[in-house]
């Protein structure tokens, strides 16, 4: 698949086949996703793959109670990746002072770039993904015994797509692009 086709064909997947996801498949995706640009090449992103069905379902049931659509989406996905950023790297000098007036903005920026690369890499390898942002971060941290310096940026369902939805309509170019 060429790059343009990969960008155009990537969708949020909510229905997966029963085929499990292997550790090797996740490694292949992360190896590609690691090429994402980041703040001063600090490489602050960490990927925590949850392949164990019971553990994944525990996260779904215990960490998304206020967001039932995420509960369903996590149950549907054969695997879950918890995308984390190490606190204090993106947008900060080595001594810990902020590099810009944006504070922790750059951490979120790096995480977003990494999530996009992860999902595009998965698409290129014929896997489907769904980025989710509504969850109980502290409960996930506890269940997975994540280090305190890991800030959970997103959770991503991963699997072999059973249904690939059509693209949603996009706003006209004249509405999203301005020339000066």
Automatic annotation (TrEMBL):
Keywords: Oxidoreductase. Residues 9-67, 71-160 form the Nitroreductase domain. One of its GO terms (molecular function) is oxidoreductase activity. InterPro entries: Nitroreductase (IPR029479), Nitroreductase-like (IPR000415). Pfam families: Nitroreductase. Belongs to the nitroreductase family. This is Nitroreductase domain-containing protein. It comes from Dialister succinatiphilus YIT 11850.
